[in-house]
Amino acid sequence: MSPTELSADLVHTIESDRTSLSKDSFKRAFLDNLFYTQGKFLQVATHMDYYLALAYTVRDRLLYRWVSTATAYTDHASRTVSYLSAEFLMGPSLGNNLINLGILEEVRQAIAELGLDLNDLLDQEAEPGLGNGGLGRLAACFIDSLATLELPALGYGIRYEHGIFYQTLRDGWQVENTDNWLRYGNPWEIRRPEWSVEVKLGGYTETYTDAEDRHRVRWVPAKTVVGVPFDSPILGYRVNTANTLRLWSAEATQSFDFEIFNRGDYMGAVNKKVTSENLSKILYPNDETPQGKELRLEQQYFFVACSLQDMFRILQGQGVSIERFHEKFAVQLNDTHPAIGVAELMRILVDDYVLPWNDAWSITTRTFGYTNHTLLPEALERWPLELFRRVLPRHLEIIFEINDRFLHDVRIAFLGDDAKVRALSLIDESGERYVRMAHLASVGSHAINGVATLHSELLKKDVLADFHALWPHKFYSVTNGVTPRRWLALANPRLSELLHDTIGDGWIRDLDRLRELEAYADDPAFGARWREIKRANKVQLAELIAKRTGIEVNPDSLFDVQVKRIHEYKRQHLAVLQVIAMYHRLKSNPSAEILPRTFLFSGKAAPGYFMAKLMIRLITAVGDVINYDPEVRGRLKVVFMPNFSVTTGQRIYPGADLSEQISLAGKEASGTGNMKFAMNGALTIGTMDGANIEICEEVGAENFFTFGMTAEEVDARRRAGYDPRAVVESNPELYAVVELIRNGLFSRGDTELFRPIVDHLLTHDTYMLAADYASYSACQYEVDEAYRDVARWTRMSVLNVARSGRFSSDRSIDEYAGKIWKISPVSVPLL
Ligand code: CRA
Prior knowledge:
Layout: H1 3-18, H2 23-36, H3 47-76, E1 80-84, E2 88-89, H4 94-101, H5 104-113, H6 118-122, E3 129-130, H7 134-148, E4 153-158, E5 166-170, E6 173-177, E7 190-191, E8 197-201, E9 204-209, E10 215-220, E11 223-235, E12 242-252, H8 258-262, H9 266-277, H10 294-317, H11 325-328, E13 329-334, H12 340-352, H13 357-367, E14 368-371, E15 382-384, H14 385-391, H15 393-413, H16 418-424, E16 427-428, E17 434-436, H17 437-443, E18 445-450, H18 453-463, H19 465-470, E19 475-477, H20 484-490, H21 493-503, H22 524-549, E20 558-563, H23 572-588, E21 597-602, H24 610-626, E22 636-640, H25 646-652, E23 658-661, H26 673-679, E24 683-686, H27 692-699, E25 705-706, H28 711-719, H29 724-729, H30 732-742, H31 755-763, H32 769-788, H33 790-802, H34 809-821
Parallel strand pairs: 1-4, 1-13, 4-12, 13-14, 14-18, 18-19, 20-21, 20-23, 21-22, 23-24, 24-25
Antiparallel strand pairs: 2-3, 5-6, 7-11, 8-11, 9-10, 11-12, 15-17, 16-17
Helix pairs in contact: 2-3, 2-5, 3-4, 4-20, 7-34, 10-12, 12-13, 12-15, 14-15, 22-33, 23-24, 23-30, 23-32
Bound molecules: ligand CRA.
Ligand CRA is lined by residues 133-135, 138, 287-288, 335, 373-374, 379, 451, 480, 668-672, 690.
């Protein structure tokens, strides 16, 4: 019997117990797992036991598909995408896996028959918060879509022991608490020690002559750590494809140093282990503000080196020659965090496999694609040269060599233009010397893309303009997307049911099918159901708000929501100015007819970002005044919901009426929350920034509230000399608002607390709140007017959903696959 026959045979023997999707066998398997993996019986089991038993039951069903997928890929020797990302913000897996298996309702039923509520079990799952925000969540949506489109793919990242911090509020300030997502274990992962690899760090290099008389370089590292892969299956929607998310955990080469131990130094003996394991201990909680921390560079190199070694193992397992690496793997760099991969692949090919430089370079550049996610100058990663040399001495030499050859080409392309040479160099030599990671990624990739049309245009015009002049053919644009499985089917069961009843289920796999809803936009019966659903979602959100914050909100008020990382460029404080203006209006005229609104904010601030933390404090302070002012009588509420996460997002988007996407134009590369809101029937008030522009185009300008300067107007305004104080002083409403903050209304008379915000607004106003204020304020009046017209608002909401198909991550992935990766689907037969 050959090994393949053997495994097929085995799978069939165990099939009925572990793979059947029938309700009865599911129930049996659940009880079996409760008994044999949790060691509990129904009467004494906790909700966590139930959740884990259910998770293992679902996992068994995934494993069958996973093994089948691995077999199909091996048989086809398929071209594979390796998606390299320092962050994967997955969110809980159970609900999503039930959706993708197509058994959510059956399982709900089975669980109910055992006297349990599926929702209670879903709530037990700890969220793997292995990302900061949009970039990490994008990676998670992308691997869902890759599997759904039956594309061979591996996600490679880091298994951080502690993900993004858990945010609480104390006296209105953000407090960071350590996340401990692994406390009860992670039922979705399988540790694969047999595929562990070693990673070298530090030390020095030396040259030598090998047995064949070749001059070679040897890297003598200062330390070695072990990378252990933990694999999780990523099942596509109603397909057999289950791809792999492979996250690396750092371990010590030896858990215990006996030499030190024998000298009697007990603590010292475990020290080495502790330092090695620090590598994958914690996710750096900064979004778009990298800090030049040595450990962070080590983390980046660690997971990239592990992943490339893993790819070579797979290549060799399939008997493919090294020279064909780029034919087997398309490696995508999710921002510059994995850009060191360019130098690492060169090192492997040149130092270990002794390939000629030019051959190695050709393989490398045909392997990598680079996605840029930001234009913010402070977000572009660069490493001080000395730090880089200390951690990766051999890679620095390789980068110098790449740079030499590259700059030679630059000199020829831009004859005699030394400024171009300095601007394009991989090394920034304007002061202290740095390695520019975006330059390394751009030189080492065959494709460079932005994440929305405007962003890609600005990349070509601005941040990477010189690279564009050199290699226009390398530039692409792929607008971001989000997975409709998690963000619609799972997050919004009520709306999904209505869609199911109206147009069937085709939209879950082909989101453009939502267009069929357009026919119902003016149908009164449909509209009434539409409103009932939104209202029910709002009631549920109001309950969550009350539970998390103690604040009671009125489900009949307009839910005006801004949820995302807290950043000055995202301008949460612009929304706050508007809230204060409304409050001021009410106070000046208590009987004024105003449309009741609930302002909901949620999001984390980087722990070291003073202004962002102060912005949170301003939101909570304004809430503390307005929410308890009897004169306002529930017409205005301001809520800051702590700990925004994937899980909280799933509960917020479906209950929103209005989505705030108010970044200064030219600053938000794309945004993805904007898409989640639109898909769930919220209307957007937004600037012409990032993907807002494309959302507005798709849904129609009449169904979108636009305001503010365009990116071009922003530039022109700044060039013309921008004086924010003059703008504030010439707008009585804005002036009054600023005065209220300045005089301490929201700080019990303390005029110092919010001074940094006020001063910055009046002097620099980097993100031009003052310039956009009047237009924002006027636009909010239009929102009021539209909301009062119930039929009109309903129609707008329906059309937003109907026309959101383009913002499925399936569309994004289809574009990457066709234009950049050149990969095609492989259909997977079950074994
Ligand atoms: N912070 C951008 O700012 C974008 C996501 C995903 C960001 C968002 O506008 O939607 O990436 N950039 O493309 C980023 O992380 C390092 O840069 C983000 O999430």
